[in-house]
């Protein structure tokens, strides 16, 4: 099946189900995360897979800012099942699947165009899926897909770097707001490429978390321009609203440097100062590939490649907090932490699914 048919196939089969029931957690945008009605345990039908799908029994899921944004805006209301990080076991394969067999342990972020991983059994296109690291637990694995793909696409797709050891030796990168999920794996990947790393943080918890990674300098983001003094960087990556640090970034980017943001902004960014120094700016959104049927196999292949580095001990899981049992109560607690904006690393709910009795 061609990439161009991906969204159409997802649309046709989103609501086609087997009669067998499964546990799932559904969301409602009309309530704050502190309200029990914001996320509810339910019994729903198990999805029927298409010819290129895997049916995966979920072992663990992770939470990300995109979950809370989609819940709050209702943009995923057609599915009502969030969840964009998973580790699980392949229980069934579509007739045209070539990359996996039943019994394989896999991990993936998936797509916002179909129901997410907050269900006991999920149907997922094989091209979005990677082989799970052999040496990680389910929780360690579930923490990694979305952030790993985001970091990989920043380095490879946006900055044009070769994903090999020492491939960017001597280059300098500033990561703004680097203690979260994406920052924690981006710093590891960039160090693997040989990049000299600087990162911003403020709280002692974030500074302590970052000390485990190969960072040259940690800057307090308050008075960042002054703290950076005369430093210049080949790459600046925004993991926070870029408008808050835009003027500082423009002053500290090298000629022909590159700036990348994974966070949107409602404030216009003045790109004019970049013109005469040949610098560029790009957006990174990991779901754009599956949203627009663009080279989605590259994500499954990237996860395969990243898993090798996990098993080699070159990259480490960024798992920080684990909730035992996947249910609406624990998911509300995890989402509340994400919505606070004060987390380090990743939060994971470890299976089994519990609580979906209705």
From TrEMBL:
Cytoplasm is among the record's keywords: no
Coiled coil: none
Record domain Enoyl reductase (ER): where: 37-349
Record flagged with keyword Oxidoreductase: yes
InterPro entries: ADH-like_N (IPR013154), ADH_Zn_typ-1 (IPR014182), ER (IPR020843), GroES-like_sf (IPR011032), Lipid_raft_assoc_Zn_ADH (IPR052585), NAD(P)-bd_dom_sf (IPR036291)
Keywords on record: Metal-binding, Oxidoreductase, Zinc
Domain of life: Bacteria
Listed SMART domains: PKS_ER
Entry's family note: Belongs to the zinc-containing alcohol dehydrogenase family. Quinone oxidoreductase subfamily.
Protein name per its UniProtKB record: Zinc-type alcohol dehydrogenase-like protein
Organism: Oenococcus sicerae
Organism classification: Bacteria, Bacillati, Bacillota, Bacilli, Lactobacillales
């Amino acid at each position: 099946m061609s990439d161009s048919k991906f969204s159409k196939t997802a649309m046709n089969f989103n609501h086609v189900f087997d009669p067998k029931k499964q546990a799932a957690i559904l969301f409602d945008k009309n309530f704050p995360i502190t309200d029990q009605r914001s996320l509810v345990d339910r019994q729903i039908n198990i999805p029927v897979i298409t010819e290129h799908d895997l049916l995966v029994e979920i072992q663990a899921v992770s939470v990300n800012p995109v979950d809370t944004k989609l819940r709050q805006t209702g943009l995923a209301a057609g599915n009502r099942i969030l969840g964009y990080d998973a580790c699980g076991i392949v229980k069934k394969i579509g007739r045209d699947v070539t990359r996996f067999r039943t019994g394989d342990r896999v991990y993936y972020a998936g797509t916002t165009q179909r129901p997410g991983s907050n269900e006991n059994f999920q149907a997922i296109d094989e091209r979005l899926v990677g082989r799970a690291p052999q040496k990680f637990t389910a929780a360690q694995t579930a923490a990694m897909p979305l952030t790993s793909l985001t970091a990989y696409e920043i380095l490879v797709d946006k900055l044009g770097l070769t994903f090999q050891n020492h491939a960017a030796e001597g280059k300098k990168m500033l990561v703004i707001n680097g203690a979260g999920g994406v920052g924690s794996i981006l710093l590891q990947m960039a160090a693997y490429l040989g990049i000299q790393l600087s990162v911003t943080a403020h709280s002692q918890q974030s500074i302590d978390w970052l000390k485990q990674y190969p960072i040259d300098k940690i800057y307090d983001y308050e008075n960042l321009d002054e703290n950076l003094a005369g430093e210049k960087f080949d790459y600046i990556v925004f993991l926070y609203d870029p408008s808050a640090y835009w003027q500082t970034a423009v002053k500290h980017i090298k000629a022909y440097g590159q700036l990348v943001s994974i966070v949107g902004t409602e404030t216009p960014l003045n790109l004019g100062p970049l013109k005469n120094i040949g610098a560029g700016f790009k957006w990174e959104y990991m779901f754009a590939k599956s949203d627009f049927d663009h080279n989605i196999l590259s994500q499954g292949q990237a996860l395969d490649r990243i898993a090798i580095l996990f098993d080699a001990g070159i990259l480490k899981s960024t798992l920080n907090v684990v909730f035992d049992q996947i249910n609406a109560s624990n998911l509300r607690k995890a989402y509340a932490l994400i919505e606070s904006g004060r987390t380090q690393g990743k939060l994971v709910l470890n299976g089994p699914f519990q609580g979906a009795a209705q």
